[in-house]
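Q: Two folds, back to back.
A: First:
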Amino acid sequence: MKCHFYSKLSLRHQITIPFITVVISLLFTGSYSVGYFLTINLAERKIESLEKISSLILRAFEKEANSLKLNASLIADTPGIGETVINGDKSTLLRNILSIKSTLELDFVRVVDRNGQIIVNLQERQLASSKFKNEKVLRQVLNGVYLSTILSAKRRSQSVLVGFAPIKSKKGVVGGVILGTTISDNLLKQIRKGKNEQIVAFSQGEIIASTLDITEDEFGQIPIENTPPIVITLASESYLAKSISISGFNNSILNLVLLKSLVPLEKAQQDLWTAIILFTLLGALIAIFIGSFIAKIITERIQNLTLATKRLATGDFSTAINVDGNDEITTLAQGFNLMTEQLTERDRKIRFQLEELENKNEQLKQTLQQLQEAQNQIIAQEKLASLGSLTAGIAHEINTPIGIGVTAASVLEEKTKSLLQSYENGEMKRSELKKYLDSAVQSSQMLLVNLNRAIELIQSFKQVAVDQSSEERRIFNVKEYLNGIVLQLQPKLKITKHKIDIQGSNSLIIDSYPGAFSQIITNLIINSLMHAYEESERGNIIIKYQREEENFILEYQDNGKGIPPDNINKIFEPFFTTKRNQGGTGLGLHVIYNIVTQKLLGSINCESTLGMGTKFIIQFPMKSP
């Protein structure tokens, strides 16, 4: 329907529509690809920025923790503080530490003695009821180690960034100083100072500090750590979320979720796509204008050429086109003029060539007929050669049992003459007579067996030879006839190690041409012996037959080399052979094909796999016409 509609359009529209369609498609595809690439690039830059910010935030926390550790070490190194701790002078310690706490804006200051007992404990009100798991840290500090870490409250979702330093005197470590800053909204704002990202801190699954005013229910599930940032929505605003964690002592973990607003990104993407759409529409308008202009120029010149062609079709060979320009249409016009000049001469030459073709066609028919007659003669010679080879083989095969029979008769004659002489001389003994009788029985049995074998071979050969040399149709038993054919081929089979297995009903009979049937089986077996196996190989050949409704099905299969795929379609062609230098004529399978398709009105198919063998499937009517 679409092609029919398109063919009815004017030439100008047929040129313009594809041109505009292609240009607009290219514009749209290119614009969409650029927009998609830029959109992805903007998103990737946001993700890279958030990844960098996460590293900066971690370093900011490390810097704050190291600052606490440094300040704790400065307090611990204050002259005389060691003696004060040993004496347990709480008032002196308070005077010194209160000013430090307010100056450093600390939320947590604690001084402990050698036994871990608290001497001074200054902390903000929000930490009054919090108990921190700091036993392991105290043991490390009292062993002289400087530390900075995060401590989580035992029962409340609260975390403190702390720095530890040991207090030393001449007697060694006498106590420790602990400084801490609560993980609070103010601390997070201080850390993110100068950055647009928001920070939400979690401890034990609850929000403990945030630069945004949100709750756990609004936030939802915390993003998985060490995974790419994901998009979440908070208060109807989209954010790119990245989760990082800071580990402390006693399995204390502070989860930080960095949030980068996607509003600027969405705005930039929207502006980008607006610009791309406007660019695409402008390009489409330009393409429409250019396409229409080009189509107009082309169609006017083609219309002139069309009119001239119509005049030429009416037989006006004087038609010519004015040539001006240097493009393809000009070249076409020049070719048209040249064509009109040559048409008359071509017409005369064509008539002359037609007469020559008719003469050559008649000659080819005669040559083809001669070739067919020669081919039929060669096929007949091939059949006679096969029969002659069969005769020579049978003569050789019959020679064996007859030779054995002659040998047995000679032995019997010699024994008989010896016994007769003993009898005439009156020297014959009972034991000598018995020995002669035993030998006579053995010789007679040997004669009978070998003569029967010779009779069997002669009868089998006689039937097969008569069938192959005649074209008569008769009813015959398939199993018995196949056994007879294989028996005739024993001279060729006995010098090999191949085994032939005939599978099928013993009582199946068909009304067909036994000579043709014998020729098919003989050629198939000889073909396998020549092409399927090497001389030292031992092969298995299976001949299977059955009846399917009114058709006879014969399957011949060997397990030899197989036929290459390039040759499988050529095997039934006359004179095609791969063993021409080794006695192959290329007519064996061709003869089979002609017998099956023309004589028996059946079909033959070949299936073969290299290295697995070859299978022929032959089908023809149970009763031949």
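A: Second:
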Amino acid sequence: MAHSQRDSLPRRRVLQGLSTLAAAGLAGCGGNTDSNGQNNGSGSDGQDSGSGSGNQDLGERVPEPVTVEYYANISWTSYQEAMAPVMTENMQELLGISVDIRPVAAGTMIENVITDKRNSHFSFFSSGMNPMRLDPDLMTRRWAIDWAGGNGQSNLANYANCSYSEPALAQGEATSQEERRGLVNEAHSIMSEDLGLIPVLPNILRGAYNEEQIEIGGLGQTGIHTTAPYPMIKSSPREGDRISVNASPSFLRAKNYFKQSAGPALARLNTFIHSPLAEYNAEFELIPVLAEDWEVTNEAKEVNITLRSATFSNGDPITPEDVKYTFEHVWSNVGVYPYADPPESYEIEVTGENSVRFTFDSPQVSFVATRLPRWGIVSKSAWTEAGANEDPEGFTPPFVNSGPFTVGEWTAGEFLSLNPREETHPVHNPDHGVDFSGYSEESAKMSAFLDGALDIIVGISSGSVERINEEFSAGQTVINPSMWPFYLAPQHPMAPVKFREFRAAVGQCFDRSLMNELAAYGNADPEQTLYATVFLQPHPWRPPEDQLYQMTDDVTGDIEGARQRLRDAGWGWDDQDNLRYPADADTSPLWPQGETPEAAPENFSCITSSGEVSFD
């Protein structure tokens, strides 16, 4: 837990000094864009040749502007907006050309990337604290070459590197954790050296509680944020028998919450309503819940699970048949449940009164860490009677719960009331109820917290943390490091970001120390993002630093060093200070826009002439 009492006057002076720059950087400056926001390179004849006085050794001009998109109107937008003026200033000083950093609706931004529209050179991302990402599979597999391009997959950088992809895909079929760690480290070391992503600043998790109204518990490493359920379970009200918490309307939207498209919401609702076989605790450790234990055998092709003695909220025992039904129901309805993700081939067998076996045709070394926590176990009889099999999309789930709470009132998108169950739960036995109220605006939930209407507030900005510290004596802020940085995802098929030295120079130029002051009020650790990796130090699969590329050793940035890096690689500035490519640079895209690397096998050694990915 951290309580920030930093003097805000220096920050205000810095903000005043950057106000003009911020207006230009966030509104868009320089260059021309078409009606769709697509950079057309026509700012000032970006394609002229390198001929003329002082330009003999240079290639064509780098078009203006260099563009960056970031999420508009989500919980971390204010964090990115506070960094944007510094990024703009640093990149403009480095490159000598205009930079356009602009907000885009979250869904639009994702669509732009996964359909390979190439609306911007960089996409500015972070990741939510989905506990399933404690396993490295998603954040390793997603950057493989077969997910790059306009195929709808979640390779958010459209990164395509054969050397990376081979170990990144192989780790998913490793037969031991030791073998797997070696492959994960190899893959991320390659991606780091290649600057597949450019970390900018660590994300931080921010929340607060009213110490006059509750005795806080369950903080651990997860703290108070939109994924962590434990403060709601393990805290105690000082008066009465309920705890009030804010939630996003999307968290409260679907009573059949298995249909959630947000992993953090799915994980938190599991802990409250339908307990999974295993879950990640407040220290990021995987612990048994409805499972007593498990054994992985046959080179990770078989998982045997023994269940605890436990009951649903109606008193019925939780049986292996319920486990089998839960997974088969979800895995057979991929179009209904966004996180279904079934193995290619599987069999689920009830092997005893309290045991069940999962069998696969290929190794599933990540199954325990990623699948066991993902789905709360439901009652086969109750869901079947409610019509789940006939209409999985539209049926109303019966709240015969395996979790520690029963559902009281649920108004979709607005309010959820949970009550402690009467039957003993094998892990969690809260002595109070929890009321979630939906808020879409930070100002509204902050007003409710400051007025005492909320006992716990989650997902707040750094500015709100400062306000609570300065104005609300009962408010105790809680700040924890995230496992993920904010990072620039270069859209790798297109120039200039397809060139490694350009990416390295951008990563070298940023004043991360100033961004920490402006965005995180000094509460982040900018040294962690000097290394080019998506994993921050809290993550258990972060590779050793000697296997990672260090962009700079200066948290204030090294713009002159970055400019010299470009010069050494043949880049330069002409007599009019226009940035130009090296004379021999091939600026054509790595594959046609909207297609995939398979459309350009001549550029990738692991793509055959028939367009298949092969590492033979």
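Q: And?
A: The mean pLDDT is 90.
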